[in-house]
């Protein structure tokens, strides 16, 4: 059976990645390579200013003192004995929809897998604890099987958000576009015991793109959202307009 690289951004001991690791058994041989601590909102960062260490925790289980992207890179290049057939990232306790995708270590791990030429998906559960990891894990297994059978379009990963409920309450599956999730009041200013001001980033009130075909609206209907993402961030429509209409010179 082919190797399946399993990772996350919440740390190697997180319940979500344990559920995902177990769900991949039978589809292939899952190998867990995950951060040794929480790396939420690490985005697509690489550690380049210090060496990284890998600890083997057990059979096919490894902890890396780095980011989710580090884990995928080292996992593919140094830990796994052969090239994996799939990279699966998650299960994140909290959604990764709209603008959150840009900050997500969960999604970025799948993005790194895609950039390295391996079909990849990221799995998250919007909402708050308690999380139904069993529902998301079962769907991730089903979707992983489809990817192994069908493949994915070139340079494309799947970003999956599964409703936080038992499987019987999921209304369906929708293929969606990435919406917009804009936060207000996301920076809180507080004071330390010595009266010095400091700031916390995170939380705040989210305003959603209400488009019917967006990831957020699918979750509002208690449907699974599957959004295909690719790492070419070029705005091709804008590029065509710039080439056609703008006339700039270097000053020479």
Note down, in words, how this protein is organized.
It is a single chain. The chain has helices at residues 15-24, 68-79, 100-103, 105-115, 133-150, 215-220, 236-245; strands spanning 3-7, 29-35, 54-58, 61-64, 86-93, 120-125, 156-161, 172-175, 181-184, 187-191, 197-201, 205-208, 223-230. Helix 1 packs across helix 5 and helix 2 (68-79) packs parallel to helix 4 (105-115). The protein has one domain (3-182, 209-245): 3-Layer(aba) Sandwich (Stationary-phase Survival Protein Sure Homolog, Chain: A). The chain is globular and about 60 Å long. The N and C termini lie far apart (61 Å). The model has no long low-confidence stretch (mean pLDDT 92). It contains seven helices and 13 strands. Strands 3-4-2-1-5-6-7-13-8 form a nine-stranded mixed β-sheet, with helices on both faces. It is α/β, with parallel strands linked by helices and 252 residues long. Strand 3 and strand 4 (61-64) form a beta hairpin.
Question: Quick gist of this model?
Answer:
28% of the residues lie in helices and 28% in strands. It has helices at 15-24, 68-79, 100-103, 105-115, 133-150, 215-220, 236-245, and strands at residues 3-7, 29-35, 54-58, 61-64, 86-93, 120-125, 156-161, 172-175, 181-184, 187-191, 197-201, 205-208, 223-230.
């Amino acid at each position: 059976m082919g190797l399946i690289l399993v990772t996350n951004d919440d740390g190697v001991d997180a319940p979500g990645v344990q559920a995902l690791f177990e769900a991949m058994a039978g589809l292939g041989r899952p190998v867990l390579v995950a951060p040794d601590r929480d790396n939420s909102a690490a985005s697509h960062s690489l550690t380049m200013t210090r060496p990284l260490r890998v600890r083997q925790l057990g059979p096919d289980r490894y902890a890396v003192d780095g980011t989710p992207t580090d884990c995928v890179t080292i996992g593919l290049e140094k830990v796994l004995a052969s090239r994996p057939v799939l990279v699966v990232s998650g299960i994140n306790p909290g959604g990764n929809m709209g603008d959150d995708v840009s900050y997500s270590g969960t999604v970025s791990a799948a993005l790194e897998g895609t950039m390295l030429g391996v079909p990849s998906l990221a799995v998250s559960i919007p909402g708050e604890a308690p999380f139904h990891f069993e529902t998301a894990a079962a769907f991730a297994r089903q979707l992983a099987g489809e990817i192994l059978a069908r493949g994915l379009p070139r340079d494309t990963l799947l970003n999956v958000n599964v409703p936080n409920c038992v499987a019987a309450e999921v209304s369906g599956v929708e293929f969606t576009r990435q919406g917009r999730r804009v936060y207000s009041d996301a920076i809180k200013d507080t004071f330390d015991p010595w009266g010095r001001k400091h700031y916390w980033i995170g939380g705040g009130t989210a305003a959603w793109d209400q488009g019917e075909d967006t990831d957020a609206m699918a979750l509002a209907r208690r449907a699974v959202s599957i959004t295909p993402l690719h790492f070419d961030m070029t705005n091709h429509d804008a590029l065509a307009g710039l080439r056609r209409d703008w006339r700039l010179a270097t000053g020479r």
